[in-house]
Write a structure and sequence with these properties.
It is a single chain. This protein has 150 residues and is mostly helical. Helices cover 59% and strands 0% of the residues. It has helices at 4-18, 39-44, 55-62, 66-76, 79-82, 90-115, 120-137. The longest helix is centred in the last third of the chain and has 26 residues, at 90-115.
């Protein structure tokens, strides 16, 4: 068993070899004058020593508040900027446009998957899943992602 004194000497020797200052928490210590100050100004000036935060204080400082999380979600999903102003009269036109694009994209994506010697469902996944995900994170009226171009 290594004694406490021996382990301390090993630790100090290792710190010295790695260039680690062990007295960094001693702001009032006898540090070298390195910026051209006089000995009088360094020794007589009042020093400001900031207390290091505890783990709990640090966690509270970096944890977002409920308002921060709501603001983050609002900016992450752009549809939240306009969804509350959506006009119900637009719904009929949007449904017709969605059905029309769907009628073209479904057979086209299945055909492209067949050309690539894949099962048809891979073409469907590539044409619709991207659109559904993209809608949450971007703003665009005309999105068709995948092998199809309409």
């Amino acid at each position: 068993m290594v004694s406490k004194f021996t382990s301390s000497k090993i630790g100090h020797g290792l710190a010295k070899a790695l260039g680690i200052k062990l007295q960094y928490r001693n702001p009032q210590g006898a540090d070298d004058i390195s910026r051209g100050e006089s000995v009088f100004s360094v020794s007589s000036a009042d020093s400001f020593v900031e207390k290091e935060p505890t783990s709990w204080e640090w966690i509270r400082a970096v944890t977002p508040t409920g308002h921060d999380l709501a603001r983050w979600a609002y900016h992450l999903f752009p549809f939240t900027h306009w969804i509350d102003r959506y006009n119900a009269q637009w719904l009929a036109g949007d449904l017709v446009a969605g059905i029309t694009v769907g009628c073209v994209v479904v057979p086209q994506s299945m055909a492209y998957a067949g050309l690539a010697e894949l099962d048809p469902q891979f073409g469907l996944y590539s044409s619709f899943m991207g659109v559904l995900i993209y809608w949450f994170f971007a703003t665009s009226k005309d999105i068709t992602i995948g092998v199809s171009r309409v």
